[in-house]
Amino acid sequence: MHLAPPPPPDLDAVLRVGQALLPLSAWHRHRVRGLAHIPQEGPWILVTNHSLATYDGFLLGREVLRHGRRVVRGLGDKRIFQVPGLRDFALSLGLVEANPGAAEALLARGEPVGVAPGGMWEALRPSSARATVRWDGRKGFVRLALRAGAPLVLAACPAADALYTVYGNPLTDALYARAHLPLPVARGWGPTLLPRPVRLTHHIAPPLVPPPWDPAQEDAQVDALHARACTVMAELLSRGD
Q1: Cα torsion at 155, 180, 79, 166 (round to 10°)?
Q2: 92-149: pLDDT as tens digits
Q3: CB atoms within 10 A of CB 137
Q4: pLDDT for the residue numbered 3
Q5: pLDDT below 70 — which residues of the chain?
Q6: What per-residue confidence (pLDDT) applies to 4?
Q7: DSSP assignment string, the chain
């Protein structure tokens, strides 16, 4: 039995944020390659890499909305929904707390769902590990796709990792491992935290269609589809502008 899906986004709020993103889009000369791979109907899961800047995902969501007139329902960290003002803002944009029940309900209603499997742990990786996939053990999105019969649409923005130089250090790793607190040591343009004006290009791969769900073979199916997704994401991240 599916849970009742979260309330729909406030389209006016979504459009206002889209307008507010225009300066960032211009700053980075943002573009998307492969928009034709976005399904125009039915449920699907948008799977992205997670940069330290994070906002590159919103730039992609804006273009997906412009292309297909569909709001991707992003799955967000539960901490977002524990802050009253931030919670209301996130809900107005269609974000939902990341949990399988809410995602299954949205997909059952035919809505697209967005997820960055690596989360903040991927975003905190040092620049020396740029363009690597930190999805080890992160298989929930694949299990969700398998059970819902929803295609995985992978998208990556390789240059997003060039917006900041991230320095690896034991304190960052320890804080995140023990308390899930992100405390990166990073710099942007010059000695500042202003993101560098690099060109951002999203690359979208053709959908990965999961096989028919076999409960008796689910773990093997999940492992195989997860391996395929990691391979596709690694290839997308290796692309230049």
Answers
A1: -50
A2: 999 998 888 899 999 999 999 999 999 989 999 999 998 899 999 999 999 999 999 9
A3: 8
A4: 56
A5: 1-5, 241
A6: 62
A7: -PPPPPPPP-HHHHHHHHHHTHHHHHHTT-EEE-GGGS-SSS--EEEE---SS-HHHHHHHHHHHHHHS---EEEE-GGGGGSHHHHHHHHHTT-EE--HHHHHHHHHTT--EEE-TTHHHHHTS-GGGTT----TT--HHHHHHHHHTPPEEEEE-GGGGGSSEEE--HHHHHHHHHH-----EEE-STTSSSPP----EEEEPPPBPPPPP-GGGHHHHHHHHHHHHHHHHHHHHT---
**pLDDT of 100:** 85
Q: How far apart are CA 72 and CA 58, in angstroms?
A: 10
The rounded distance, in Å, linking the Cα atoms of 30 and 199 is 6
CA dihedral sign of residues 22, 51, 183, 113: positive
Q: Where are the domains of the chain?
A: 48-162+205-241
In the chain the first and final C-alpha atoms are separated, in Å, by: 44
Residue 80: the pLDDT is 87
Residue 140 and residue 34 in contact, taking contact as beta carbons nearer than 8 Å: no
Residues 6 or more apart in contact with residue 17 via CB below 8 angstroms: 58, 62, 93
From the list 55, 86, 62, the residue with the least C-alpha distance to 164 is 55
Residue 44 Ramachandran class (φ > 0 left, ψ -120 to 50 alpha, else beta): beta
Structure tokens at 56: 């590159």
